[in-house]
Amino acid sequence: MQFGIFSVGDITTDPTTGQTPTDASRLQDILTIAQHAETVGLDVFAMGEHHNPPFFPSSPVAINSYLAAKTDKIILSTATTLITTNDPVRIAEEYAMLQHLSGGRMDLTLGRGNTGPVYPWFGEDIRQGIPLALEKYALLRRLWREDVVDWEGQFRTPLQGFTSTPRPLDGVPPFVWHGSIRSPEIAEQAAFYGDGFFSNHIFWPASHTAKMVAFYRQRFEHYGHGRADQAIVGLGGQVFMRKNSQDAVREFRPYFDNAPVYGHGPSLEDFTSQTPLTVGSPQEVIDKTLGFRDYVGDYQRQLFLMDHAGLPLKTVLEQLDLLGEEVVPVLRREFAANRPTDIPDAPTHASLRAVADAAPALVESEVK
Amino acid sequence: MAARKLAVVSAGLSQPSSTRMLADRLADATVARLTEQGVEVEVTTVELRDVASDIMNNMLTGFASPKLEAVIDAVTGADGLIAVTPIFTTSYSGLFKSFFDVLDNRSLTDMPVLIGATAGTARHSLALDYALRPMFTYLHAVVVPTSVFAASEDWGSGADKIKTLPDRIDRAAGELVPLIAASDRSSQVRDPFGFDASLSPVGGFQPS
């Protein structure tokens, strides 16, 4: 099982000091955070994509390319790559480039984005979010799998005799996760292709996530990719830890109360009881995270949101130390215990290459 | 046939509230007529004040607390809805609107609805027709033609003696009852993950 962190790259004033980072300082902090994640033994770093303040990371692929040169082991992913408003041709090209630069140490999570104005800024209509995600991904897949593509669709100028370069590393397309909180159409899409399904359930009750993941698993089996319990599931999580639970609550409360997404709404206590947010000791984080398996089954990837709401760099790095030293080793051991041996790990470049080498004749035909 | 379900939503704030009184009278008249026709009915009455902070939290976070979720399920899964609000500043109260704002905008489709309102003076009565009725129409609910407005004077000596409040209540209930009796909304199975049968995972474009 993979453990890691994801960042949405928000620029938020630290409510305890009144300090607001600049784009430049926040970018440098995130580069530090990502490299520290590798140092403390995490498996994945995922970067968000946004095209509106208070977020700065418009290009996660650029950030991940830099990190590929600075790191050795960590998988560089996204949270998320906007499939709706990007040109799928540019996604195919840029992420294939990242795949080569990182030696296959990458994948990506596709999302639609829910910020209304971003769609028209890129010439799209938010009411077409699902059709955009479905059609653009169908093209993206072909661009990585067919050397020469003829294509015509609703949302992009047609292609005749187009070859996306560089061709995928070792002829193995990057692994794709589809992220969605509440759209069953996206779970259906992930299941149809046998891709991963990522539920960033940090702002939602467990009961909702349980239903979405169960639906994806059932459809994964329906489409013949394996048993439902073998589908590839990732979850978001959100924690703040100190050795003593009370210290964690006291320190995190001002950040919670002023956070852009849930601030000024429910109390910290209500929110932690209703969502996966855990504020407390490392042991409490371990207990709550292990509980995720009770409602989604054995899964493949757990990412935590650690740097947000104005938390200073020093605090975030301390959080990563706790995560890497005290939490993840226990989670690895506990999640591995009682895990059936035929539950797959999250696909990596190496595992996908092994599958491709074993069955060279199996080339995906044109998508019907 | 299983009992029909009637949901009653009151956005009244005080105790006792004339909004709740009107809601109860509309419900009583509706239940009486249904019972007369041999139609069994279960009534769930919701005071929005009891879930006021849950409604605002849902607005901010995007999801309902378990307590609000139960209320939403009771309202959206009913065969008929009686919705009554005080008129504040020429329209429905903010609490009343906020509750309907956090519902899935498809969840009241085909719902038979009887609307009512209260205010200090009858000069606000048109709010029913310029505010509540279009809101429910937008939600694709079926609003009965008669809506019931009760001004403070309707509860005392200044009331309309020709078309009395009980007359208006009775007429409105009479319009709602056949719609509830004919409804199977409460016994429908709703798939929260249902999507359009025409959905294709590869996109909808068909080359000519």
Describe the structure.
The complex is a heterodimer of chains A (368) and B (208). Chain A has one domain (2-358): TIM Barrel. Helix content of chain A is 43%, strand content 14%. Chain A contains twelve helices and twelve strands. In chain A, the strands form two sheets. In chain A, strands 1, 2, 3, 4, 5, 8, 9, 10, 11 and 12 form a ten-stranded parallel sheet that branches. A two-stranded antiparallel sheet of chain A has the order 6-7. The longest helix of chain A is centred in the C-terminal third of the chain and has 24 residues, at 313-336. The relative contact order of chain A is 0.15. Chain B is an alpha/beta fold and 208 residues long. Helices cover 38% and strands 19% of the residues of chain B. In chain B, strands 1, 2, 3, 4, 5, 6 and 7 form a seven-stranded mixed sheet that branches. The longest helix of chain B has 19 residues, at 18-36.
Shape of chain B: globular
Name the average pLDDT of chain A: 95
User: Would you tell me which CATH topology of chain A applies?
Assistant: TIM Barrel
Total number of domains of chain B: 1
CATH superfamily annotation of chain A:
Luciferase-like domain
The count of helical stretches of chain B stands at 6
**How far do the termini of chain B sit from each other?**
50 Å
At CATH's second level, what is the architecture of chain A? Alpha-Beta Barrel
Shape of chain A: globular
Examine the coordinates and then state which fold CATH places here, giving the name of the CATH topology of chain B.
Rossmann fold
Structural class of chain A: alpha/beta
Note the main sheet of chain A. Answer: 10 strands, parallel
What is the alpha-carbon Rg of chain A in Å?
A: 20 Å
How many strand elements of chain B? 7
DSSP strand (E) fraction of chain B? 15-25%
Give the count of helical stretches of chain A: 12
Q: Which bin fits the share of residues in helices of chain A? A: 40-55%
Order of helices and strands of chain A: EHEHEEHEHHEEEHEHEHHEHEHH
Classified in CATH, the superfamily of chain B is: Flavodoxin domain
Major beta sheet summary of chain B: 7 strands, mixed
